[in-house]
Specification:
Shape: elongated
Oligomer: single chain
Strand content: 25-35%
Number of strands: 7
Order of helices and strands: HHEEHEEEHHEEH
């Protein structure tokens, strides 16, 4: 993201210049102070009225409103995004997904154009503990979400994300690793894993991913 110096040169008509100077004087402010305050008030108003997203904190929900664990599929690009920024993007076609305590990341066999592959294809080796879900994010909303602003400084991901129209983002408290990655026994089941709900008891006792649902 471009860095800004905090200095700006304004050009305006002599008449507007005079009117602004008179207003600043009436408030016992310097011209600079008056302009900064006026701009701050306008920016604050725009930020409050133009956001389209809503935030849901998992800890503020009732138990019955939250699923225990959900399986999601991850291509290599998204796995790298996960490890670097602790976020997961739900496909907007799924709509407003029901919140969950944990995400279980199934790594696909896809190879990216640069040759990158997943470390554990056809396995669940990582889980994420969910902190918050942000629904209906538009490209212009990222600047209003402090937790996602680092993405805007990471061109590898931001150059792609900024082209998305609407999406739902899961903020994770942590990303952990299973001591023994869980394999998928029936490869044909991979296409049905997206947004699959499971429970922690099933997860603790499972030998294969197929046993989670």
């Amino acid at each position: 993201m471009k860095e800004y110096s905090g200095r700006i040169l304004l050009r305006m008509s002599p008449q507007l210049h005079q009117e602004v100077a008179q207003l600043a004087s009436s408030y016992s402010q310097s011209l600079n102070e008056f302009l900064i305050q006026t701009i701050e008030e306008r920016v604050e108003k725009e930020m409050k009225t133009n956001v389209s997203f809503s935030r849901v904190n998992i800890n503020e929900l009732k138990v019955k409103e939250v699923r225990e664990a959900v399986i999601v599929t991850q291509h290599p690009w998204f796995m790298e995004l996960l490890h670097k920024h602790n976020v997961y993007f739900f496909n907007p076609s799924l709509g407003r997904v029901t919140p969950m305590q944990y995400l279980l990341f199934y790594e696909t066999t896809k190879q990216e154009s640069d040759g990158t592959k997943n470390e554990h294809p056809r396995h669940i080796a990582y889980y994420g503990k969910v902190k918050e879900i942000i629904y209906d994010i538009q490209p212009g909303d990222y600047m209003h979400i402090p937790e996602l602003q680092p993405l805007m400084n990471d061109p590898k991901f931001w150059d792609e994300i900024r082209t998305w129209e609407t999406t739902n983002v899961v903020l994770l408290r942590e990303v952990g690793t299973f001591a023994n990655p869980l394999p998928l026994k029936n490869g044909l089941e991979a296409r049905y894993l997206v947004n699959k709900t499971t429970t922690l008891p099933l997860l603790r006792n499972a030998t294969y991913i197929d046993e989670l649902y």
